[in-house]
């Protein structure tokens, strides 16, 4: 961190921040939707990652037959497919290892606060990076998802660091909103779900 942003802890999102999972989201969407004759565009996938609106609510046309029932079937099928697809298509983001080890070498505590389930950490476990983190909070640990700050605050508490001395790194506007709601510095990472305009509008400090 530069001198203008002094923090004692850095908490990271996972999907799109530490793990490039965009391809996995595309594959799951395509496989789940294929039996219904649906084509899911990349734009829909990205839009879904930048909003609290359910993915299939965005993907299904408003006049789709038996829409509510179909949405639930698609949701269950996507959840079934996700672990295997993420294992096959999820990759560590470029420079993730260098950044994490550099922060550790400078004495920062590291945490994870993700809306994904614990299985999303496999890519980090596979290369041994999960051991760099002092605290990990996943969907199973909280009752409210981002932009609610519960996950971030839970992680900061486990780290023993005040939110004001913590930065949160993420790739979506929801991450930036959650960071500010938690009283943390918000660091937007390009290359994931959000672009520079979206991240800046959501309050990214850098």
Task: Please give a quick description of this structure.
Helices cover 43% and strands 12% of the residues. By secondary structure, the chain is α/β, with parallel strands linked by helices.
Keywords:
single chain, about 210 residues, alpha/beta, Rossmann fold, 2 domains, 5-stranded parallel beta sheet, two-stranded antiparallel ribbon, 7 strands, about 10% strand, globular
Main β-sheet, spatial strand arrangement: 5-4-1-6-7
Q: Total strand count, please? A: 7
Q: What's the level 1 CATH class of the largest domain?
A: Alpha Beta
Structure classification? alpha/beta
Distance between the termini: 11 Å
Overall geometry: globular
In helices, the fraction of residues equals 40-55%
CATH fold type of the largest domain: Rossmann fold
* Number of individual domains: 2
Topology:
Blueprint: E1 9-12, E2 19-20, H1 22-33, H2 42-49, H3 55-59, H4 67-89, E3 91-92, H5 96-105, E4 109-113, H6 122-126, E5 135-137, H7 150-159, E6 166-170, H8 173-182, E7 185-188, H9 196-201
Parallel strand pairs: 1-4, 1-6, 4-5, 6-7
Antiparallel strand pairs: 2-3
Describe the protein in words.
The protein is an alpha/beta fold and 206 residues long. The protein has 9 helices and 7 strands. The chain folds into 2 domains: 9-21 and 91-201, Rossmann fold, CATH 3.40.50; 22-89. The chain has helices spanning 22-33, 42-49, 55-59, 67-89, 96-105, 122-126, 150-159, 173-182, 196-201; strands at residues 9-12, 19-20, 91-92, 109-113, 135-137, 166-170, 185-188. The strands form 2 sheets. It has a 5-stranded parallel sheet with strand order 5-4-1-6-7. Helix 1 (22-33) packs across helix 4. The longest helix has 23 residues, at 67-89. The model has no long low-confidence stretch (mean pLDDT 88).
């Amino acid at each position: 961190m530069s001198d203008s942003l002094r923090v004692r802890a850095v908490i990271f999102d996972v999907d799109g921040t530490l793990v490039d999972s965009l391809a996995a989201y595309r594959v799951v969407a395509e496989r789940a939707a294929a039996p219904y004759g649906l084509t899911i565009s990349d734009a829909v996938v990205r839009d879904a990652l930048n909003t609290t609106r359910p993915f299939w609510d965005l993907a299904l046309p408003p006049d789709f037959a038996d829409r509510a029932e179909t949405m639930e079937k698609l949701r269950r099928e996507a959840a079934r497919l996700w672990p295997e697809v993420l294992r096959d298509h999820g990759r560590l983001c470029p420079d993730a290892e260098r950044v994490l080890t550099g922060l550790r070498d400078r004495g920062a505590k590291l945490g994870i606060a993700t809306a994904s389930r614990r299985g999303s950490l496999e890519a980090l476990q596979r290369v041994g990076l999960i051991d760099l983190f002092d605290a990990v909070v996943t969907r199973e640990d909280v009752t409210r998802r981002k932009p609610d700050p519960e996950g971030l605050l839970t992680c900061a508490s486990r780290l023993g660091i005040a939110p004001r001395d913590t930065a949160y790194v993420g790739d979506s506007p929801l991450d930036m909103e959650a960071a500010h709601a938690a009283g943390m510095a918000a660091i937007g990472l390009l290359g994931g779900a959000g672009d520079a305009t979206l991240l800046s509008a959501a309050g990214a400090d850098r």
